[in-house]
What we know:
By secondary structure, this protein is α/β, with parallel strands linked by helices.
Amino acid sequence: MNGPDPTDNPEPDASLDGWDTRWSRFVDAPDHTGVDRRWHLLDTGPEDARLTVLAVHGNPTWSYTWRHLAAAVPDDVRVIAPDQLEMGYSERTGRFRRLGDRVEDLVGLTGALGLGGDVVVVAHDWGGPVSLGWLQRTRRADGPTIVGLVLTNTAVHQPANATAPMLIRNARRRWVLPRVTVDTTAFLRGMFELSRPRTPPTVRRGYLAPYGTAERRAAIGHFVEDIPLESDHPSAPVLDEIAAGLADLHDLPSLLVWGAGDQVFSDLYLDDLQARLPHADVHRDARAGHLVSEDIDTASIIVDWLGTLGWPVPAPADRAPSTPIDLTAAMADPALADRPAIHEMERDTSITFGDLDARVQATAEGLQIGAGIAPGDRVALMIPPGIDLAVALYGCWRLGAVPVLIDGGLGPRQMSAAMRVARPDHLIGIPRALAAAKALRWPGARICSTPLTAARRRALGAATDLPALQASRADTPIPTAHPGDAEAAIVFTSGATGPSKGVRYSGERIAAQIETLVERYAIGSDDSLVAAFAPFALYGPAMGITSTVPAMDVAAPGTLTATALLDAVDAVDASLVFASPAAIANVLETADGLAGRDRSPFDQVRLLLSAGAPVPTHLLADAVSDLVPQAAAHTPYGMTECLPVADIDLVGLHAAAGHPLERVGVCVGEPAPGVEVAIDPLDDLGRPAGRADAPVGSLGEVWVRAPHQRLGYERRWHTTRRASPEGGWHATGDLGALDEAGRLWIGGRLGHTIVTAAGPIAPAAIERVVDRLHGIRRCAAVGVGPAGAQVVVVIAEAVEADRRPRQAPIGRIDEIRAAVASTVEVDVAACLEVASLPVDRRHNSKIDRAHLASWADAVLAGGTVKNP
């Protein structure tokens, strides 16, 4: 027996994790046969609530799955979560209840309850079809007013081109079904294996509690048997009618909350629901599994979404039409026709702006006519930086398609995750990318960026290739300008501080970003660019300047050598160089390779830009003195969601030295043109207050507002909501402060705040001190212990560190403690040394402090010492 036997104790007891016994209520109500049955409800009251949430569980759960939601809703919101008949603590009649029966059962219950007023339906698993059937019946019968719908990991249709989940198909086998669902708790326990992370034992006990005997588990088997996988299944017509009825819900506010790691209700079913409810808000979590309400804080997502119901949404007629935007206009300038637009270092070849414009036009026409790509279609681009990538990108923009830029620096796992998030309609890539797409089942019709034989095309599953499409153009006029507020690109964050997120941009916001960069750095037609960060190089044609990427592994900026940088600068007579701190560091370390070379091309560089992570002042100073002596060195601050936000040059960094706000971190300068910056103050536990009114010098979360900031995050409704304070701000998730001159100081990520007994501390302030010490390449400062009582631990990447981590030598510990205490006035509790710190793949610069904090906690607690 597992947990209390409901035969002897017919209601949930107070020992169940998270359960409030005041929620339990029993109601007699007629089922679909007209016979009164005893229902168990989770009911929070009060009956005069302004809003009622009707939450319906699936199989093999019970109303326990909604306990977090019941605890989280405001006092004036009532949650009613019934245990379906034969399930949970509701009556066992021994009757086989099919989908249609359960819909009618729920109609009988809500009628007996006299449910009225405004109602939001929330459902999980097979509670989805049951609740949707009830909703459709209720709307037709002029019952309570349904004002919202929330669906979590459920389905209403099995797509014709896909097989049902293997776990369900296996469980429905005649000889397996009774053994795994009724005779044993195997099906119940298997549900926990679908959860991410692993379900704690106390929570398992809660789900198992009502199902202690085979008699009480009979309906679990009935539910599985009633899944209509076959067209002639008795419940198939009912489910088909429910699925078709979703078309009538176009005016109903809806939210889809999804655990993308679910092995039963995969993204296949999320995509189907999105197609049926295209207006729905979507929050998809790549890490969560089937029991999404256990895996992530689903309750907060739903409660925040409930708070948006009733907000006035301007009708389309009330919105001013956006200005058309042509992101390809610069390359069509006749004055630039004969000037090189892009130089490829690998092939030592260039293309002029005139030829680039012609190829972009041929590509746009070919994509439209030959591949059937229409404005608004999403096109993933997986092509190395160079001419082919630029042609594909600008061809999409000229057509009005939406390029999805998936950086190879994300790594294979994150690239796959990005493809599942963005769901492109098409994929243009090199053969290796198409092979990966086929093997990993990435979405999108495949187009090769290079010519293919018919056999190779079939092997890769490619519909065609770009050269063939360009040749098939029909000189069909296509509009070059498109609505400025329309989606124009999806780019992905580095994934350094969590799963990579898809950031959505409109055409007008991309144009504003280009304009801001041009204005801030006085970029003109006489400039040319070397970008060691590939996405930045893609803006060269839009700025009307020549650009190139050095010979390097673009997925690993730290592979840039001094020789490769000199060759690239020489090839395009570069006046601008953009490189991450990791790239600059390696260039300086490999400068000996320039011996005997003519270094005069470096003298024409007027501007050195470095971004992607905090840039040590000494690194910029060394780069200027040792490499580009005529250059002004700038370090713009920003993020994928808004770049640039602020900017400072080397002179400004030196001038900021000794400022009191060095206790916060690094000065990143004044806001860029058109950018507003504010600080949301922190409380004593390091939590933002939610208002942009921190006094000068106060530590808090950085908020920005700019014409070139993102639209939102793809299929991350709650993330977008949390990062979007009222007034058009973007909450960056960065720690910072503003000084009396309006300059911004950055102290790290909000999630990396060290919350001591004396208050919150920014890690960057400690790190900038330790990084200056001899023998240390870089370091991370983390907090160990509970928030409000954390101690500071420094993990240093030492020049001569052992391969195995260790406590730092006494002399170094004393040196670090003294330096930090005298500058930041913080006590360092412990110092550890490692050979290398974990950093992001894209910039090779962003340190994973959250991981290091957990690692340091385990090490200091006496755990096995392994590399972080």
